[in-house]
């Protein structure tokens, strides 16, 4: 059973209160075979060397502030994935040091999973982003690609635009600023052409920069997903688009 790989715009904890986004994520999950395990790489865990998170139990990391109390009471008691951690480590080259920690799932990992797989019955492993450089993430993704043939769903979790310092309207249905709309349209068109070299050069090529990504950690997970496709130049499906608080929630799936 070969699983696809996903790039998800993961949203903040209130994503779960948006019926449109919840329906979109559920539709994505319903269109996939049920994974045997899930490997997540989130924008919210940058750490070098490459780190593998908790594998016995999978706690949650409430890595956000200023939200209502009930968002800090969410639980997602998924099983750990120690065998998957061993396989990830074995796939890395000698030049890619791999370390382990008991860190749990941050909100970039667990928020979409609570919607897509609410039963929390699939083993989950989170790995860190050891770099933000597209070429290196593409290579790490290529090395992880064989896991897809073992039923592992590989997910890069970020946000297609993430210019939080430049938002003025924080309502979920706020109109998207021009920089967010322009960057999102460029990303959609560039993905549709499979122009991975242009995507990798987004800091210089994309309209809306640097407002769309004043820091780049939310765009970087895309390259792990593209690398895991086996053919980064394929045109992925883009089942989720639109905006939330003016940020582009575009997400895609590679075969």
Compile the SSE list and pairings:
Elements: E1 5-9, H1 19-30, E2 37-46, E3 50-52, H2 82-91, E4 98-100, H3 107-116, E5 124-129, H4 134-144, E6 152-158, H5 178-192, H6 196-200, H7 202-205, H8 221-228, E7 237-240, E8 243-244, E9 247-248, E10 251-254
Parallel strand pairs: 1-6, 2-5, 2-6, 3-4
Antiparallel strand pairs: 1-10, 7-10, 8-9
Helix pairs in contact: 4-8
**Alpha-carbon distance between the two ends:** 12 Å
Helix content: 25-40%
Number of helices: 8
Strand content: 15-25%
Task: Please give a structural write-up.
By secondary structure, this protein is α/β, with parallel strands linked by helices. The protein has one domain: LigB-like (Protocatechuate 4,5-dioxygenase, Chain B, 3-Layer(aba) Sandwich), CATH 3.40.830. It has 8 helices and 10 strands. Strand 8 and strand 9 form a beta hairpin. It is globular, with a radius of gyration of 17 Å. It starts with a strand and ends with a strand. The model has no long low-confidence stretch (mean pLDDT 95).
What descriptors fit this protein?
255 residues, alpha/beta, Protocatechuate 4,5-dioxygenase, Chain B, 6-stranded mixed β-sheet, two-stranded parallel sheet, 8 helices, 10 strands
Question: Concise description?
Answer:
This protein has 255 residues and is of the alpha/beta class. The protein has helices spanning 19-30, 82-91, 107-116, 134-144, 178-192, 196-200, 202-205, 221-228, and strands at residues 5-9, 37-46, 50-52, 98-100, 124-129, 152-158, 237-240, 243-244, 247-248, 251-254. The protein has a single domain (5-254), classed as Protocatechuate 4,5-dioxygenase, Chain B.
